[in-house]
């Protein structure tokens, strides 16, 4: 992409109404545009990041043999009445259709996926299976002041799994847990992300959250000094004792929840009569699990964890482009153009600053936008290309053929 043709432009001033640094950098870089409190449009660069995150998630969740679907965003009131959530989920956006029919905008999809599963689940032979989607969720959040970390409309990957017995649910839950680590590794946030015990609801003592350490987060986590297991402060009653290793030594950190996994048991299968015929011909309720990841929240978290005073430092796996090519001076323009065309024809993801700006302005924008590698073509580099990693200060000279 040529920056001279880019729809979005970088912004010099910090947006005054944004408190979190990730939102400030994403707005200044032209990744997202704020529509209203808690509502953002993804601009071309931001959408590329979101698509990269989504595709990493797809690869890892497909590896669990879960199948992707896309559920309706409108949820009929009756479905939510069945589970008693129409009046008890306080962040629901409710609306009326024609004929006074009432709906909610999807905030979570147990009420669609459970009756759906019922249509195709007859016997133990149909189990287990996993269904997931990547879809916009709507929540009328009371607090929406952390930029893209907490919004009123956001993409979520929500996976639901269906099982004949507890052992199978437990097995699957552990597999999802491992695939979440792979996702957070590939999206560049694993190092500061903790597995955290949280309250589990009716069917299990605990659920698990994946919490990334950042001051922009709203949660407080007790982290065990011995084994780094976390416990959400909301559920620590009395003195802390690590649920994994029983140590009593801890530190408290601020963190943001990027994902969670939950054993639902029969909470949703019972009200929808989602049953199956077991090997012994008995009718039994299906056991369910649900597993979420917030996509824009993950993007914002990646920025919170990978930035410096100059801008974003995208992890390789989710950077919108791998290279940021800069031409300096009139005499290098044509050569930079040829290099750009060559890289594009080789399928390499490169953003090209072909604008008539000063070196200082171009370098500042490259640092703000945060591609992992900066390429400079100038009279000084002669027939080579200078390459510098965004997170390093030592440039190197390479041949064009060495850039892959
Ligand atoms: P939180 O505790 O932060 O309110 P939650 O427990 O309600 O989130 P879920 O309903 O399980 O979260 O949603 C799954 C994932 O969706 C969360 O782990 C988070 O990454 C993301 N998410 C939830 N609410 C929001 C929001 N308002 N804005 C952006 N992402 C969100
Ligand atoms: Mg939560």
UniProtKB/TrEMBL annotation:
Highest taxon, organism lineage: Bacteria
Pfam families membership: HGTP_anticodon, tRNA-synt_2b
Reactions catalysed: tRNA(Pro) + L-proline + ATP = L-prolyl-tRNA(Pro) + AMP + diphosphate
E.C. designation(s): 6.1.1.15
Entry keyword annotation includes Chloroplast: no
One of the record's GO molecular function terms: proline-tRNA ligase activity
One GO-annotated biological process of the protein: prolyl-tRNA aminoacylation
Keywords, alphabetical: Aminoacyl-tRNA synthetase, ATP-binding, Ligase, Nucleotide-binding, Protein biosynthesis
InterPro entries registered for this protein in UniProt: aa-tRNA-synt_IIb, aa-tRNA-synth_II, aa-tRNA-synth_II/BPL/LPL, Anticodon-bd, Anticodon-bd_dom_sf, Pro-tRNA-ligase_IIa, Pro-tRNA_synthetase, ProRS_anticodon_short
EC class of the enzyme, as a word: ligase
Keyword Cytoplasm: no
GO cellular component, one term: cytosol
PROSITE patterns according to UniProt: AA_TRNA_LIGASE_II
Aminoacyl-transfer RNA synthetases class-II family profile domain boundaries: 38-315
SUPFAM superfamilies recorded: Class II aaRS ABD-related, Class II aaRS and biotin synthetases
Protein name: Proline--tRNA ligase
Organism from which the protein derives: candidate division WS2 bacterium ADurb.Bin280
